[in-house]
Amino acid sequence: MIRPTKPIKLYSNFTPKPFLNLHLPALPSKPRTISFQILCCSDPPTPSSSSSSSSSQTLVSILRAIPDWADQVKERGMRQNRVLYSHEKWVHHRSSLRHVRHLLSSLSSRVILSLVPPVIVFTLVAVVIASYNSAVLENWLPEFFPVLRASSLPYQLTAPALALLLVFRTEASYSRFEEGRKAWTKVVSGTNDFARQVIAGVANSSDAPLKNALLQYIMAFPVALKCHVIYGSDIQQDLHNLLELDDLSVVLNSKHRPRCIIEFISQTLQLLRLEESRRNTLEANISCFHEGIGVCEQLIGTPIPLSYTRLTSRFLILWHLTLPIILWDDCHWIVVPATFVSAASLFCIEEVGVLIEEPFPVLALDDLCNTVQKNIQEAIESEAQIQARLSAKREIHTRHHSPNGHPKF
């Protein structure tokens, strides 16, 4: 065994030299957060995949074109201004030529135009089923392909159920329309009565500016409520002739415009120099405004139970998808026009129920608000004339009658 002659040293004589003129950057007082983004590696899209995705997007856009057009027609019809009926309009409405007029205006009806997508789909399904059955009967397909036919007994049993669904759906929608109409009737009559009490009850000349402002707020409330319940209304355009700019800016900046105007009315009533009993009488009219807001917001926020609406829609879809199969033995190719007529009729009834479910775009709210403004402005203008006329009558009566009740000669 070989042994080393010198001992092994386990240390070194190397002495490190310090770095000269080395300036370290100042460390930040707070630790910095370093974010890392993980990039997933994927194969670049091939020309075939990009072309297939573009073709699928084109197909989807084509299929969506007709429903989007139908929805635009429907919404444009919902934004049309309704008018209150006059005597001339009622005569035109019950004319014996109304059926011809209604038939000629079918292509401009928003209800009928909104039914174009479902009617086209179910009519095409009927064409496909009729073509398939004809091909099978003509032996153009192998023998194991069956003819799509079925008994009409299930349809005879379920037809009353579908009729009841449509009737109840339409009746529920009309009850909502009637409730909205009654709510606005109360708002209009309450506004007119409130303005009448202010015109007759505030007689102090020093309160004339506040009286005029109060009447402006009362006229502005139905307009604010109308803009509150109808989507897309321009409240600034509707109120710029009724309110001053400062008041209008406060109303526009508020989250709930009708309640803001009610606050204006309440504060104005507190500033008027009135007896406490008369002030309480005037403030009692504000409850009619709150009631109108509550009913309108309830109708807007709570539709007919969605399960009922979905059930009616699904029932109609399944009914018309299987209708060509049921009618094939009796009608053959006549199933195509029969399906078209059935889909157009039944879906039209369901569409009317959906449209009047939201009652306020169907009501003539613009005309109602304009009528309220005209009535109040007419009452303001005729106030001085009526007072002068009544004062003259009282003077004439006092002049011709003595205090003891005997006439003077």
Can you offer a commentary on this structure?
With 409 residues, this protein is mainly α. The chain has helices at 47-78, 87-93, 98-104, 110-113, 116-137, 153-201, 208-229, 235-239, 245-253, 257-271, 276-284, 286-301, 306-331, 335-355, 365-400. It has a domain at 182-302 and 366-384. The chain contains 15 helices and no strands.
Characteristics:
single chain, 15 helices, mainly alpha, about 400 residues, about 0% strand, disordered N terminus
Tell how many strands the DSSP assignment holds: 0
Radius of gyration: 39 Å
Output mean pLDDT.
82
What best-fitting shape do the alpha-carbon axes yield?
elongated
Largest β-sheet summary: none
- Helices, by number, come to 15
Q: What are the secondary-structure elements, in order, as H or E?
A: HHHHHHHHHHHHHHH
Low-confidence stretches: 1-43
Question: What kind of assembly state do the chains in view correspond to?
Answer: single chain
Roughly what fraction of the amino acids lie in strands?
Answer: under 5%
N- to C-terminal distance: 169 Å
Structural class: mainly alpha
Helicity level, as a percent range? Answer: 55-70%
